[in-house]
Write a structure and sequence with these properties.
The complex is a heterodimer of chains A (92) and B (146).
Chain A: E1 12-16, H1 18-24, E2 28-31, E3 38-39, H2 40-50, H3 54-59, E4 62-65, E5 68-69, E6 76-77, E7 82-86
Parallel strand pairs in A: 1-7
Antiparallel strand pairs in A: 1-2, 3-6, 4-5, 4-7
Chain B: E1 2-6, H1 12-18, E2 26-33, E3 46-51, H2 53-71, E4 75-81, E5 83-86, E6 90-98, H3 101-118, E7 121-126
Parallel strand pairs in B: 1-4
Antiparallel strand pairs in B: 2-6, 3-5, 3-7, 4-6
Helix pairs in contact in B: 2-3
The chains are: A alpha+beta (92), B alpha+beta (146).
Amino acid sequence: MSRRVPPAAVPLRLLLFATARTAVGVPRLDWPVPAEGRSADLLLADVVRQYPALRRILRGSRLFLNGEPLADPAARVGPGDELAVHPPYGGG
Amino acid sequence: MSTRLSARPLSIAAAHRALDGPGLGGVVVFVGRVRPDPTPAGPVVALVYEAHAAPARRALAELEREARRRFGVERTVAWHRVGRVAVGEAAVVVGAAAAHRRPAFQAARFLIDELKRRVPVWKERRARPGRRPRQRPSPRRGRSAG
């Protein structure tokens, strides 16, 4: 008799560019997030606990949620969202 | 109006063609090329650009719309390379065309200055094949281009 396996929770995808990627060591992380969501700043505090080098980078970075600028760092993010960390730009 | 985020070499001749048109007497094209700046690991041989593609394309398009609205230029280009760009190659090409030179100069200057400030693109220096110098967090340091 097969047991019913609960579906895997959908994580939030964290995109890390430039110095943020260097601080964490990978360009993206799938991060667990509760179904009801969590504020972006609290979620990033969780990430910093695991990757302390990211703390300094976040101070000078902009955040993008699903490709749009995230003006309020306390905004709620949830499963399936894509949160990008943009360190200062260096094009040209 | 032309924006581009490209892994292929940028053609300056193509930029001039995109800015061509009847009555456009003032055409300004700025090309930012990779310099062989010295580093502790040796001279820079290339820059590797990465972008957050969708927001970068949108930011380039917004810059063009703003340049046309603010300066009244008729045609613009805002192109940026991604991937590895060797010393001497163009990393960025911006340009503007108008009836007269003043708005063309102003718009081209606006495009390159604001591109550096607003478009999510980052670069990493390569001093020698297979070696990765430490990344600099500030856009004012470790430039080597533009």
